[in-house]
Amino acid sequence: MTIVNARTIDDALAALAERPDSLLLQGGTDSMVQMNFGRLDPRAVVSLRGIRELREWRALPDGSTFIGSGLPYASMEKGGLAARLPALAEAARTVGSPQIRAAGTLGGNLGTASPAGDGLPVLRALDATVHLRSATSSRDVPVAEFLVGVKRTLRAPGELIVGVTVPPAPGWQGYAKVGVRNAMVIAIASACLARDGSAVRLALGAVAPTVVRCPAAERAAAAMLAGGRRPSRDDAREFGRIASSECSPISDHRSTAAYRTHAVAVVAARLLERSFHG
Ligand SMILES: Cc1cc2nc3c(=O)[nH]c(=O)nc-3n(C[C@H](O)[C@H](O)[C@H](O)COP(=O)(O)OP(=O)(O)OC[C@H]3O[C@@H](n4cnc5c(N)ncnc54)[C@H](O)[C@@H]3O)c2cc1C
Q1: Reported pTM
Q2: Which of 27, 121, 147, 229 is deepest in the core (most CB within 10 A)?
Q3: Which residues contact residue 149 at a Cβ distance below 8 angstroms, ignoring those fewer than 6 apart?
């Protein structure tokens, strides 16, 4: 196995151009597990951990937020980034253990593209854009297009995820996750809701081959909340019911499709209510 310890994005892209089949290693919290189980046996590795420019976030002049693909979850949990994107902070706090949050990153969450990745519903609800670069080109892809299926993305060999940009997100935003325990758990259903007045955006995780938005529930919410109305308990339940009709969960070792459907209805309804009560 050859290993390149990249110090800059350009270093990494040059190594990747030479060996487009290289495994990109960021926190390693997904990849090392796969290697330990013998499911992954890369011949070439490009380690990204030494690239400082990937581990940064910044507020952009238009109010949007750039997050480097190598920024660990621990840096999203509190501070300036958490104040700008509270749903991302909530999602980050639910990831694994402190050790996993010190190493794991959004770049890795996107690279793995598990339907249960905790960062992904947030990026999907907030209409984030993924920035990709290769040695010869760069492109920006909406996260909705980037995630194409279970563990499948639009990333081409030779491309590196540099980071994501989240557009300005005024109003309330929150994240909720259901698992078999309160900590160290992969979601069996998750949701991110962002609300600005009557405009509601809802994305669900772990209940379809990839993260999904809920256009029918979003339209129903706009009608329920028109004219500054607050949702009644029945409104919230109806919103949750519609959201649960927009996913396609499976039964697996973590849960059943029926429970996932129920869980989605509950978390979507609660998030809508929470958006009015803080
Ligand atoms: C004990 C444990 C608990 C966990 N709990 C959770 C949890 O609660 N929620 C959750 O969502 N996940 C969880 N995970 C999974 C994992 O921590 C996350 O998916 C994390 O975001 C992966 O980030 P990483 O930097 O470690 O990725 P890595 O393992 O380094 O990489 C993962 C994949 O992404 C690719 N990749 C990484 N960076 C880039 C880049 N810049 N450009 C292109 N491709 C890239 C890699 O090549 C690889 O295919 C857990 C894992 C463990 C071991």
Answers
A1: 0.98
A2: 121
A3: 113, 209, 210
